[in-house]
Amino acid sequence: MSETSSDFDYDLFTIGAGSGGVRASRVASAHGAKVAIAEEHRVGGTCVIRGCVPKKMLVYGAHFAEDLEDCRRFGWEIEGKRFDWKTLRDNVLDDVTRLEGAYTNTLENHDVEIFKQRATITGPNEITLGDGTKVTAKHILIATGAHPRMPECQGAEHAISSNEAFHLDELPKKIIIAGGGYIANEFAGIFNELGCDVHVVNRGDRLLRSYDEGVRDRLLQISTMKGIKFRFNTTFEYIKPCDDGGFFVKLSDCDEEKADLVMFAVGRIPNTKGLGLEAAGVELGDNGEVKVDRFSKTNVDHIYAVGDVTDRVQLTPVAIREGQAFADTLFGGGDPVAVDHSCIPSAVFSHPPIAAVGMTEGEAKNKLGSVKVYLSDFRPMKNVLAGRNERSLIKMICDASNDKIVGIHMIAPDAPEMMQAAAIAVKAGLTKADFDATTAIHPTMAEELVLMK
């Protein structure tokens, strides 16, 4: 005889209260399931507590440095301006606390029971909480996210990750940031705008490998112009504390130097250690990720996983969609729902920001053979009047055989805001002719999308 929901304490037990886990839990509960969730840190997960949300607030705060400089050409004089890091830091952390409360209220309002402690799988359908309490669940969802990778070099323990960047007591005069991905470039921009001497060190030979070459080259050019120093094809040999504060840092291609802070932003590792997954028979990948099918199900019938812990696409909106699809599939009573992981738009909140959707020019040529590329390389109107020599780039990639737009890539002020709407068109399979037939909104940067020849 098969087990029914009444044989268990819960229909669903979720481990991890980040974006994916919270969405899955509240939707499952709305469908009538009895749901509990465990979180050993803070409700909200990486995005809300130590990721996208506080990072974007720091980006806003940092961008005032340029706005205050540019405003003089627009007739504004601001006397005695000064920046106080602790004011920005504390206001950001206060808002994080507010959001943590909002996420907690969402769960409680949907009758999801919250356990603020660690949970591990200790048997078939069995979870043991940090205080030793054992509970059972018909279905278990792993939504534990990921954590920053810290490389192995002598003295690596003296470096910080992005997690600690939000809590600094003071800004460093000089910071060395290791990494070439979006986190490294975003924090390089933030620290640079706030007056730090920023050095970005990358073991490879390029930034933002997954982004279009033209866009990432433009970011490197602009970032260098803003004073950020880049070093490629180099690795850390050691980090040693100095007696008078700061650190001696030795890189493979140069002499020892001194820095006030070293930050590693070299990728993220799924949080699967110590969860009891191996003992439960759950298959893990080479990076420790939980392996799942298109419906987020593991090789163990009652165990599922969503979000960064699966290492499919490590983006908050993707985790939310996976959580929603999981809950609808298991508890919604309709047909199974799978998330489409193709054509996902993304952004890098650098200075200026990057946004992209679809294939890069290189990917499109490899896959389609014949492509048409349209470019708009321009100086935004605001930059012209401000006297800021900073050009934007918008690139459209089309399949030459049918005019279909297969990729859009841009680096420009507010590029992510423009891209959200443009991504709908690319996802829907619209053509260059569809864009050409759309009247421009003038004067805007976004009008370049419908005016490219």
What is the CATH class designation of the largest domain?
Answer: Alpha Beta
Cα-to-Cα separation, first versus last residue: 67 Å
CATH superfamily descriptor of the largest domain? FAD/NAD(P)-binding domain
Number of helices: 13
> What Rg, in angstroms, do the CA atoms define?
24 Å
Helix content: 25-40%
Main beta sheet strand tally, sense and closure? 7 strands, mixed
* CATH architecture descriptor name of the largest domain: 3-Layer(bba) Sandwich
Overall morphology: globular
Strand content: 15-25%
Number of strands: 21
Q: Mean pLDDT, as a whole number?
A: 95
Structural features, described:
The protein is an alpha/beta fold and 453 residues long. It has three domains: 5-148 and 269-331, FAD/NAD(P)-binding domain; 156-266, FAD/NAD(P)-binding domain, CATH 3.50.50.60; 352-450, Enolase-like, domain 1 (2-Layer Sandwich), CATH 3.30.390.30. Helix content is 32%, strand content 23%. The protein contains 13 helices and 21 strands. The protein has helices at residues 19-30, 45-50, 52-70, 85-109, 162-165, 182-193, 213-225, 277-280, 316-331, 361-368, 381-386, 415-427, 432-436; strands at 10-15, 35-38, 113-115, 119-123, 126-129, 134-142, 146-148, 174-178, 197-202, 229-232, 236-241, 247-251, 257-259, 261-264, 268-270, 303-305, 346-348, 354-358, 371-378, 392-399, 405-411. Strands 1, 2, 3, 4, 5, 6 and 16 form a seven-stranded mixed beta sheet that branches. α1 (19-30) packs parallel to α9 (316-331), α3 (52-70) runs antiparallel to α4 (85-109) and α3 crosses α6 (182-193). The longest helix has 25 residues, at 85-109. It is globular and about 70 Å long. The model has no long low-confidence stretch (mean pLDDT 95).
